[in-house]
């Protein structure tokens, strides 16, 4: 180790001396006529490294240094932050839109379910509702056909004054008021064109053009017109004009007198 250190030291000294000698010689050679000192490098980096270490210096590539503009860097940073913020806003909008769409879909589903339930209940109620009813409670006192030299075109059901009179089927009131021989009457037309007639009523509870359901009260029993006592005179006009026996018509619909 001591010998190596001495060898290196010797080489450094020799290189320095050689470089100094070269500098002195050049200075003397150019000294005549010179007005100022001439500075000459003692030795190139590669030569000095070779002299000192015995190895040539590694070649280094030149490095380029770029000038940095603070304003430009700030603008780039702001633009980057703006893009990030915009992405967050877009995501928030998308989440809100997706949530709104989901809520609307759920609301629509609930509304459709509620409508379906209402329709189901209405259908059940309609199925339970009678399609035909007995027009009044009481005693059957007279039937359809000849009577006392004339034709009796209906049936009579006797009971006390004020007994409810019901529409035998669903339909529309086509007349409600005074009638010859009946005092007061109500006529109801049904979907198939049939008209039912309710005569000798005491009080009318419906008006012309009114829609009534099967079993709806339309009047009360009375003793008006050509009547021998409180009763309902009930007729059935098939097709709106042909008077038929109400007993058979009611029986076809499950009603007996």
Kindly summarize this structure in a few lines:
Residues 151-246 form the M23ase beta-sheet core domain. The chain has 257 residues and is of the alpha+beta class. Helix content is 40%, strand content 24%.
Write a structural description:
There is one protein chain. The chain has 4 helices and 13 strands. Strand 2 (145-147) and strand 3 (150-152) form a beta hairpin. Among the domains are: 70-128; 139-252, Distorted Sandwich (Glucose Permease (Domain IIA)). The radius of gyration is 61 Å and the shape is rod-shaped. It is an alpha+beta fold and 257 residues long. The longest helix has 59 residues, at 70-128. Strands 1, 4, 6, 7, 8, 10, 12 and 13 form an 8-stranded antiparallel sheet that branches. Strands 5-11-9 form a 3-stranded antiparallel sheet, with no helix packed on it. A two-stranded antiparallel ribbon has the order 2-3.
Largest sheet: 8 strands, antiparallel
**CATH fold annotation of the domain at 139-252:** Glucose Permease (Domain IIA)
Give the CATH H-level superfamily of the domain at 139-252.
Glucose Permease (Domain IIA)
Which CATH architecture of the domain at 139-252?
A: Distorted Sandwich
Order of helices and strands: HHHEEEEEEEEEEEEEH
Distance between the termini: 142 Å
Shape: rod-shaped
Q: Give Rg in angstroms.
A: 61 Å
Number of helices: 4
Structural class: alpha+beta
Strand elements, count: 13
Parts with pLDDT < 50 across at least 5 consecutive residues: 1-10, 12-46
Strand content: 15-25%
Q: Bin the helical content.
A: 25-40%
Top CATH class of the domain at 139-252: Mainly Beta
Mean pLDDT: 80
């Amino acid at each position: 180790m001591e010998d190596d250190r001495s060898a290196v030291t010797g080489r450094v000294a020799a290189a320095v001396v050689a470089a100094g000698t070269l500098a002195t010689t050049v200075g003397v050679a150019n000294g005549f006529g010179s007005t100022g000192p001439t500075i000459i490098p003692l030795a190139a980096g590669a030569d000095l490294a070779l002299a000192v270490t015995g190895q040539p210096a590694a070649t280094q590539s030149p490095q380029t240094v770029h000038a940095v503009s603070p304003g430009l860097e700030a603008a780039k940073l702001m633009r980057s932050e703006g893009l990030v913020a915009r992405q967050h806003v877009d995501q928030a909008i998308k989440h809100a839109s997706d949530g709104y769409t989901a809520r609307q879909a759920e609301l629509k589903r609930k509304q459709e379910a509620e409508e379906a339930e209402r329709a189901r209940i209405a259908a059940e109620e309609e199925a339970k509702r009678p399609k035909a009813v007995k027009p009044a409670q009481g005693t059957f006192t007279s039937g359809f056909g000849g009577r006392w030299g004339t034709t009796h075109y209906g049936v009579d059901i006797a009971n006390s004054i004020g007994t409810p009179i019901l529409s035998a089927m669903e339909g529309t009131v086509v007349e409600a008021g005074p009638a010859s021989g009946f005092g007061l009457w109500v006529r109801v037309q049904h979907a198939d064109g049939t008209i039912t007639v309710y005569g000798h009523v005491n009080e009318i509870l419906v008006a012309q053009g009114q829609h009534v359901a099967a079993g709806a009260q339309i009047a009360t029993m009375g003793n008006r017109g050509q009547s021998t006592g409180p009763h309902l005179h009930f007729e059935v006009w098939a097709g709106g004009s042909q008077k038929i026996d109400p007993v058979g018509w009611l029986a076809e619909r499950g009603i007996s007198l």
